[in-house]
């Protein structure tokens, strides 16, 4: 089996798109299409179904895609172990993080790492939890930290630190003007601003509210935490977001925390790893930095919800 052609097929299968695969591989789309056709001819089986609705894997394609992931994972492990034995002092460290972690938690750690290892090129990818997990499995990341649940058995999940989530509102919002903590049931009367499906934050909020039997009057999906804050500041609704993410706007008086009675929402930030994968020296050094700084304090007073009122 031609591994070059297999790599082309793997890129298409993973992205369900010839054009996105070509972009990721830095080659032309016709070259990708030709390579997949050659592989299908070699194997004597169609691997992809091409139609108006897009690209789908055939049964043979699904089988081959699973083996391709294993093959390229082994290839990546071999390269990384050899690099570790050489004791590289230069190179690239590719870190992936879900949006809240990448935006509000990792920057100080990246700065500390850069000061200690200025010769290592840093690359930070920010996406939702599902996307980051997929990139790590595809060997496109060295380290990954996410904020949401991960169900893939191929990944090991290690708790890194805890994050408090708080209910925020515009200063003039009726909940922000109330004195003392409010019951979580008030959300049944509100417009709740939430993240898109696949977001770790969104899944955690949905699960917590479902456990309380609370259905907000309306939910408005927004594609980033920064956008959520802007929508809340405009007075459209309220949101449950990371205390770290809200700290700056709260300190400036642009947002207020609505204290909740008998309700505390916390979640874990988790480090993901692939079983048996040897980390590069740079990745091991950054992992040591994570272990040395497992918990960051909220940057503004009074950010945590009050469980007792």
Automatic annotation (TrEMBL):
Keywords: DNA-binding, Transcription, Transcription regulation
Keyword DNA-binding in annotation: yes
PROSITE patterns: HTH_LYSR
UniProt xrefs under Gene3D superfamilies: 3.40.190.290, Winged helix-like DNA-binding domain superfamily/Winged helix DNA-binding domain
Annotated ranges, domain HTH lysR-type: 1-58
GO MF, one annotated term: DNA-binding transcription factor activity
Stored InterPro entries: LysR_HTH_N, LysR_subst-bd, WH-like_DNA-bd_sf, WH_DNA-bd_sf
Entry similarity comment: Belongs to the LysR transcriptional regulatory family.
Record-given protein name: LysR family transcriptional regulator
Organism per entry: Neoroseomonas soli
